Amino acid sequence: MPGSILFRAMLAGTALQVAMVVAGHYVPVIADFFAVGGMTISALAGFLYGRTRTGLSIAVMGGALVGGACALIGILVSWRLGDVPAAILALGTALSVFTGALGGLAGWLFRDGYRGRWWHDAAGR
């Protein structure tokens, strides 16, 4: 598992989430953007995973898993630091699952660069 793309995308997303949370703990301006930043990081992690998959459903489901997992860990750290209420654990993770899935979709669509190939794949050509 340590060599898998799922693990590497999750690790990259988690590192970025935790870095953002720790920076936001000390710099209040960064904390103002926890929601947008966290969902963007989850989408990026999903994108990294989705670029390596050839199947649409696997790319989207894996992106959702990666996005939600890295967000959950980041939000958990933020909650333990006292920066966010416990309710954000559920809400933030759910939203990041969604943005991770969107990132996985985008990664799948643009996996070989944008050349319109995804349209032919979806149409079965």
What does this structure look like?
The chain is mostly helical. It has one domain (5-123). It is built from six helices and no strands. The protein has helices spanning 5-26, 28-31, 34-50, 56-80, 87-109, 117-123. Helix 1 packs antiparallel against helix 3, helix 1 packs parallel to helix 4 (56-80) and helix 3 runs antiparallel to helix 4 (56-80). The longest helix has 25 residues, at 56-80. The termini are far apart. The chain crosses the membrane at residues 33-49, 56-81, 87-110. Keywords: Membrane, Transmembrane, Transmembrane helix.
**Helical proportion?**
over 70%
User: How many β-strand runs?
Assistant: 0
Largest sheet: none
The unreliable regions are none
How large is the share of residues in beta strands? under 5%
The H-and-E topology, N to C, reads as: HHHHHH
Query: What structural class do helix, strand and pairing data support?
Result: mainly alpha
Oligomerization category of the chains in this entry:
single chain
Number of helices: 6
Average pLDDT, to the nearest integer? 89
Radius of gyration: 15 Å
Q: What is the general shape?
A: elongated
Total tally of structural domains: 1
Q: What distance lies between the first and last C-alpha atoms, to the nearest angstrom?
A: 34 Å
Keywords: Membrane, Transmembrane, Transmembrane helix
Transmembrane segments: 33-49, 56-81, 87-110
